[in-house]
Amino acid sequence: MLKVQKKLQDNHPMDLVSTFLGAHAIPKDQRATEYVQTVITEMLPKTKDLARFCDVFCEKGVFTVNQSRKILDAGKRYGLIPKIHVDEIVDTGGASLAAEVGAISADHLLMSSETGLRAMAQKGVIGVLLPGTPFCLMMQRYAPARQIIDCGVPVALATDLNPNCWTESMQLMIQLACLKMQMTPAEAVTAATFNAACAIGVQDRVGSLEIGKQADCIILDCPNHQFLPYHFGINLVETVVKKGHIF
Predict the structure, then answer these.
(1) How far apart are CA 177 and CA 27, in angstroms?
(2) DSSP H/E element including 155
(3) What does the domain layout of the chain look like in residue ranges?
(4) Which residues, in sequence order, are CB contacts of 182 under 8 Å at separation 6+?
(5) For residue range 95-112, what is the model confidence (pLDDT) as tens digits?
(6) Angle of helix 185-192 versus helix 170-181 axis, rounded to 10
(7) Architecture of domain 2-206 in CATH?
């Protein structure tokens, strides 16, 4: 998959930034400790020049804090910057681990403690909120965006596009952020643009309209940014501009 992404990056108009997430689930025919070793000794050495980040799903029933730390530290030895999925179902202390290992971002954060969030804020870890996941899983709880922001954590938004959250719509994520997580439209737009670029380390060239950056933007059929959550359920994009080219 990483090799395919590299080829697409060379040939596709979209920008792709690859993350190695070998530790997302434990195979049925292996124990967790065995699989952690497989990830470290067999998978990570093959990621050279193919990925920029190493991610782990640190959650009850998946990878523990110690196992996640071991994988992320090993990833650093191969030049991969840590990312981490944490505290989606229970508070495992994953937010504190994100701060400890110097992760660029931590995803989900539904159940993270205030102690963990403040540790993230001190280390500049970006909180990537994925409101599409609790929405499609019919959960009653969403990430506490107001608390996360109040703790000083910069917040980004993403789709969490995967087989259990099948959506590519960032407009829907902005709408859910406002309607379900009490973010303001301005906060949600910032989270989906500049802060999202920071979460993958490309804020020097995308994420905002500034001289010297790529001309990446969309023109929406609405009078202002407040209409993004107000006029929901449709595609408001009228024009896409990528690297200065109109699509």
Answers:
(1) 33
(2) strand 155-157
(3) 2-206
(4) 145, 146
(5) 999 999 999 999 999 999
(6) 140
(7) Alpha-Beta Barrel (3.20)
